[in-house]
User: Fold these one by one.
Assistant:
Number 1:
Amino acid sequence: MTEPKLPDAPSTARNREPILRELQRLLKHSRRVLEVGSGTGQHAVYFAPKLPHLSWQTSERAQNIEEVRAWLAHHPADNLAAPLELDVTGQWPELAVDTVFTSNTLHIMPAAAVEIFFRKLPQVLQPAGQLIVYGPVKINGEYIGPGNAGFDEWLKEQDPLRGIRDLEWLDTLAADAGLTRTENNFLPANNQLLVWHKAG
């Protein structure tokens, strides 16, 4: 029987190992992770079995959630729950997690949605919890690598509300939500893995 063709985000295969190395360190003491914007679900099905001590909760907007369901159906894991419908600008599910993880989302969301994302984090993130964000950012207004400048231009051509965000702006949004940045890890392909912690 031929396995159905699953949706594919090619960048996942390239970035999953560097991200996993950081997550194995950062999630040692985590028990429940909410992934916001799971995309195709490829990250989740790769990470969850390698982090068996925790529960990995996927989420996506309603129009994209079937892709996540398809990947989870073909690559199930005991600690991988069915995806939740979550639009960051709408009502969030009633959850209590110690980590929120999101990958390659903040430059895709409109800036107003990024603001709402940070505002709503305290609803689900427990005291001493952490936010982990993977993707490109600007630091002091400067792109990390020349490729990101072209990528930012392309994003804004697709939608003027998209774009690579300034780290300082994200820090301000995080501070308003009661979070403080504790790490900025430089990963391949001019991406960062950023960590903010909520006060305990």
Number 2:
Amino acid sequence: MKRILILAFSDLNHDARVARQINFLSDKYALTIACFDSPGEWKHEIFPIKRIKPGLFQKAIGSIFLLTGLFESAYKVIYDFPTLRKKLETRTFDLIIANDIESLPLAFKIKKTEKILFDAHEFAPRHFEDKLVWRIFFQRFNKYLCKEYLPLVDQMITVGSGLANEYAAHYPVKPVVVTNANYYAKLAPTLVNEKRIRLIHHGAANPSRQLEIMIEMMNYLDDRFSLDLMLLTPSIANKKTRSYLDSLKDLIKGNPRITIVPPVKSSEVVNFIHPYDMGIFLLPPINFNYANTLPNKLFDFIQARLAIGIGPTPEMASLVNIHHLGVVANDFTPQALAQRINSLTATEISFFKQQADRAALELSAEKNKVILNDLVSNLIK
């Protein structure tokens, strides 16, 4: 059986894309996975990546390397994970799948004869371009990694057309689109109570996502509507991000129509949100990746058979409009989305939920499984 190494600098309990990647390939290949954490029920060979919180000296050295353009040295300080590298250097695989630009140099360091498939979850050169600190320290670093390593990969995939086109415009690559679609769920749309319409948003509690906008939106919705927020704070989040969830809890105090509920594993999200009526996501395009996002949650809404309410993010809006899945606001203000949602009747919301049911198979992960397995098979041949 052919062997594949999957590199992911993430917690796979909450990284739905990589978890699906693993499941797509587990039928045909022997998988070795290097990651921060993983579900305990997996039978694959796991190499846990030990995260060591950098000390003041390490941060200072890394910062100096980044500022002075010594990017290979900076990589060794930030991402090299020497213990992991030494273990993997003794192994031979048929293919290495590197998730996100941070894992790609490590893939080439341990590469012998293996082919390399790169999965870009974001457009790395403009990942957090809205943040001054990131632009100062990491933008040139990410551009360097892309320039040095992208021409060397054997195949590349990414999450949507906007990212694929941007990578192709700047680097000698032609990414194949493998969306963040979730697995087909055998669920039926739930009935809509016209007097109690339940909205849900789930995802990371990240300040840059400006979740306050969706909270403010509730001020403009009539009493039929309630909103639940299922928010996750990543374990590697900085102090500002960790405190953001607390600030949101303070913001909703005294509003009985808004509740923050505990997060569940990514594999449990669809069943959890199924009883709701509408999934919402309003994400101002403050950086390139936000402006071109086609996120997991949109496909989760579809598999849960929910109506959808979103801002005018192009690829999301296109999918919602083509399949008649819900409403798209005219802009990214809370008033604009509230206006569209307020105008809906229970009958119209039920129609959108039925449309999600009709589109669920076409917009499921099963289609992506075929795409990825074909790519991998051709690479290994």
Number 3:
Amino acid sequence: MVNPGGINAFKSNQRQLDLDEPHKYYGVTPRQILHTLALAVHQLGIPHPLQVQGCHFGVPGNIKTTLDTISGIEGIPIHLTHIQFHSYGIEGKRQFSSGAAHLAEAINRHINITVDIGQIMFAPTVIVSSEANLNSAGYYCHPEASKWIAMDIECEGGYTAVPFQYRHDNFVNALQWTIGLELFLLINDPWRVFLTTDHPNGADFTSYPHLIRLLMDRSFRNNILATLHPDVATTSHLKNIHREYSLYDIAVLTRAGVARILGLHDRGHLGKGAIADITVYTNQDNKENMFAVPDYVFKNGELVVKAGKIVKTISGGTHVVRPHFYTGIESKLQDYFTRFHTTSLRNFPITDDEMIRGGQGKLLMHPCKKTI
């Protein structure tokens, strides 16, 4: 769920929609939308929680809305995405500051919350969003970029893509870098955190080995911190955080914890019955080099990478859950599409053949959880 109600509000010339602000046409609030959908996912028994990009993505001061979202969900499990972009305060002369400590404290207290970070890296990338509106990174960043592409389809959503480069000497970018690392290091439980760069918005996923080194090597990250915009380098709390991730923590952050949160019980571990997805490394002091070139990678027990070179390509699978639901809703949806859309409802269901790309790979069915 992306920016609940906000995209539609933009189409009604309501340029922003706060968590408890009613949509001026429909009268519902983002909190009501969030609570209803999160509860529905939970009651349907879907193995993973509702994934949520909250209100005010990338907007200074959005930390308050993020904290209100956590406290207002009333214990229902939700997964908050790329929270680095939702952790901004308005302190200081630039009215832009880190809210990472407050957010980490809230996540530590609310065990129903899982997150991914959305760490930025100092490299060229492309900011991609399904929100072509004022709340999107695309709208805010396009004055700094060479191009801004936006489109709207069927008035149900939007899309924006902006070529962008995060820079060491830019105050905002430097602070974003520290905020992401502060969140990684201040959230106590690695089992509730995904290692992400919100690919490609924060950085390309190939930067993960560099990010892992930042988490495991305090001296390394402090050396980089010292090269940043001086107002960030001298005031950031990051230099005072002594925590370093262990190899065990990284395994949880990138494998075991992710599988558990997604409800994939046959992955993320080496126990009986597990799928043999295994990566083998030679231990090195420089963890970036270590994770950049694995010795071996096994997929479903088959060797696919040796000494960093691909030796075999095999088809993967598509993970599927099929919860029971009230089928009568389909007639109401058909009426809605007939009245308001130029496309038919029958264009939207995806067949099994389409999900496995013309017969390659297979469907991997997962049971729903039992609910009361």
Number 4:
Amino acid sequence: MRPPGHGETQPRLDDDRRPVVLVVLDGLGDRPVPELGDRTPAEAAHTPVLDALAARGASGWHLPFGWGRAPSSELAHWAVFGFGDVPFPGRAVLEALGAGVDVPAGVAVTHAALRTSSADADGRVWITGRVGRDDAEDAAALFTDVVDLAGTHGHRLVPLDRPGGRARSEAVLLLPGHADGGVTDSDPFFEDRHPWLRVLPVEGAAGAAPTAAALTELLVAARSALRAHPVNAARRARGAPALDVVTTKWSGALGPVPSFGEQVGVPGAAVTSTRLYRGLAALLGLRTRDLASVPDLAADLVARLDACRALLAEGAAFVHVHTKATDDAGHTKRPRAKLEAIEAADAGLADLLDLADEAVVAVTGDHATPSTGGVLHTGDPTPLVVAGPGVRPDTVTAFGEAPAHAGWYGALAARDLLPLLLGHANRPAFLGHRPTPRRTLALPDDPPPMPDPG
């Protein structure tokens, strides 16, 4: 212990603050599967690394927004990163930033995609598919004309490249002159249940009616132009479905957003691979290492943890490491594919056992992606394990939803995850102490100093 200062009776506190590493296995949570002995993929998987972390640390359930509420990745991460009380700008803004598109503040932005469709006798348009791998040339020609059409309406449509050289089918649409992006999706998501949807202002978006009207006008005009386009005429002639509708989703607008350092109080970083997380990092001012994903998930995560160590060496106090492979496996609706993805992830996370000697490390998911049934995401729990210096072990010795239920953390909301980890890292915000104008989640690293007049 350091000796007391002049006139003090208590010893000075040692600085034993630790960094935090959060590994998110996207869509990790699941439901019991009969073919896996009524276990979830995480419960049935062989996960010696994650089991060892569980034995060394403490466990619980991550329920981002409570039972029954099915989170999206972007909203779960927004809350996990400590921004639950900050208005979310919309995923389209993040996708645009992650693609390097300049997004002016106060301009409505949405995500647009070229799709196939079929109209029924009641005049409803049903989405029947998307751009395929063999549609690249057709999609490029169609998108060129939609870009021009958007321009005649005073908007800006920026096509986005897809990973692996796949056919271009997505874009971000900026609507200058329209500041409120609070409008509904025209993309039905659940294509066998809902048709192409009408764009309407969301509740509470007082200025979004003109945005909804302008977007509707453009989408209707694009539908007419695409149906009459020679490229689609040729597709129909050869028996291919026409790419004849544009859907939109994730609308919003960029407003004032504090940086991660301002909101949390410590420097943050992220190991990214997709537009969404590149955009989130750009918006929040996170230092990044962007690594293209590789098919070998174990090797992919080894590389990501190496990048994580480099970011820690550069001074990051919080590093986010993410993989989408577990979520992708869940969406296949093949439980064993997800089990195998979790086992591969476990092998790639072996370095966490050493990292937990010097940092607080946590592994969890951002939501549940059931590998069975007719749902995308659900509000089912996802396992959480935390290990590191100062983390008192509980009685849990295995990873998975059922073992984690007995853990000390109980059910943890997304907004409570980062304060928990920062507390373990000896960085808790001392309630009642106000070193910065914004109430940060951690004891801030660099509050503004008073100048010395000399």
